[in-house]
Amino acid sequence: MEDESITVRTVLSEYESKRLLAHYDIPITREVLVEDRHRLMEAVEAIGYPVVLKGCSPNIAHKTETGLVHLDLKNEDQVLAAYDEITKNIIETENTDATVLVQEMVSGKRELVAGLTRDPQFGPCVMFGLGGIFTEVLNDVVFRVAPLEKSDALEMTREIKGHRILDAIRGMAAVDMDRLGDILMAIGRIGMENEKIIEIDINPLIISAGKPVAVDALMVLESPGD
């Protein structure tokens, strides 16, 4: 008889998702997963201020809306207060032990989104567009069927309406297009080589000193029986 108490996960946590991105040479934030205050301060010391603290669990999809993200923490008092609030919220809402992601604070005014969706007809399709709060507001995104060549990836970046954000603008350096193209190609490879992954969402992909960095990520897996 099948054990109904076994829960099959269909979502990877941010930490797990970004480990897979890093395996495909996609730049991610420096970060450490911690479960207590002692390990917390060790991680902060290793990463250096300012830091970001996030609640981390496969069940947490919208961390900001639930008070599980604290940005730009500059000292120990701020870090400990944020940690206590996050762990309290996780225990109350998830009824489980709290794990917290300690992350470097990546600065950049330009936010992009990149990812993947698995279309029933065409298979894995790479997505690219404007990220952050603009993703849902402007819906300025484009898609390409994987696998991608570098020319495909670069064409995608010029097809969004807001493509000028990638150029040198208002004192900010132009985006490293070669690196951005590599990221989109790598996302396509993830989709081609991991059939159980049906969705990837990297949002935001922040441009810091011209370089794209995956600051947040989520991966959705195929449900059993699909």
UniProtKB/TrEMBL annotation:
Q: Where is the ATP-grasp domain?
A: 18-226
Q: Which PANTHER family match?
A: 3-HYDROXYPROPIONATE--COA LIGASE [ADP-FORMING] (PTHR43334:SF1), ACETATE--COA LIGASE [ADP-FORMING] (PTHR43334)
* Protein species of origin: Desulfosarcina alkanivorans
Coiled-coil residues are: none
**Has keyword Cell cycle?**
no
Instruction: Give any GO molecular function from the UniProt entry.
Output: ligase activity
Q: Which Pfam families match?
A: ATP-grasp_5
Q: What is this protein called?
A: Acetyl-CoA synthetase
Query: Which controlled-vocabulary keywords does the entry list?
Result: ATP-binding, Ligase, Nucleotide-binding
